[in-house]
Amino acid sequence: MMASTLEDRFRAGDPRALARAVTLAESGLDAARPLLRAARETSAARGPGGTVVLGVTGSPGSGKSTLTDALIAHLREEGKRVAVLAVDPSSPYSGGAILGDRIRMLRHHADGGVFVRSLASRGVLGGLSARTMQVLALMEGAGFDWVILETVGVGQSEVDVAAACDHTLLVLTPAGGDGVQAFKAGIMEIADVIAVNKADLPGADRTVRELMAAQGLGHHDEHTWFAPVRRTVAAKGEGTPQIVEAVLAHRAFLGEDGLQERRRRRAEFEVRTLVQDRVMRRARELSRDLYTRVARGELDADTAADELLAGA
Ligand SMILES: Nc1nc2c(ncn2[C@@H]2O[C@H](COP(=O)(O)OP(=O)(O)OP(=O)(O)O)[C@@H](O)[C@H]2O)c(=O)[nH]1
Ligand SMILES: [Mg+2]
Prior knowledge:
The chain has a domain at 47-255: 3-Layer(aba) Sandwich (Rossmann fold). It is of the alpha/beta class. 41% of the residues are buried. It has 12 helices and 7 strands. Strands 3-2-4-1-5-6-7 form a 7-stranded parallel sheet, with helices on both faces. Bound molecules: guanosine-5'-triphosphate and magnesium ion. Residues 64-65, 97, 101, 150 line the site of magnesium ion.
């Protein structure tokens, strides 16, 4: 009998084939392409409601990993298969925090219904990288019920999460006026669900009240989705079912059309990020001479940019 190809095994749902595909995609190798195509085909065949793609973001140390871990446990109890991608866009290297995440989530490793990966990769503009998007697409294509992207909310990456996922869960804490900060920074706008985590610490009720008051202040009409604000104690798994409920409520709010639109937006974000990567690489490869000519006034910057885009 002929040995089946990696693509066949990926399509058949072999977890080792997924692991291999993810490694290829992470490395940006062309060998990942047929697998990425296969993933998109299987996702498309399952329809936009097939996989819940949830982004989990928030300030460093707010409890994103702990909450993700608690979500895995709860979803597994409901028989759902879960894939998690933990990304640290602030670090170009595999940092300690990511290692910590992996160790924490290791308790699920013997469970075939759970797939955890971490990625220390930064996009060219400081947000999520195209590779991150591709790993998500592979996880979705592998047929997980939930795919969770955890990323620390710093700068561009926070905005990117909303473009990369169906739903965004913002994890805040009672400490240090986190809620008010989020409002001021315009971060609340990207949140579909808000967890006030560490609700065992003082000030949780006040933070919830402030957040809800702030939501009322923002621009809204009868079509506005008000992100449900839920208290959680992730360390004890408290409030996790309510988070899942809130995400599913947002899913129902989006409906089939809304989810299809999110999927299109995710594809757009992936393609755009690839384009950015390539253009930036090209810009770096261009001879210093071109930039010197611009600096000397021999060539204007617009023409230089035109030449770059024309593949000159
Ligand atoms: N008191 C309390 N501590 C918690 C809770 N959830 C998480 N923590 C603690 O908060 C610290 C940070 O938790 P993480 O889950 O690593 O937070 P994170 O947001 O993933 O952190 P980064 O990925 O490094 O940004 C850990 O020491 C957790 O044990 C909670 O509900 N209550
Ligand atoms: Mg973490």
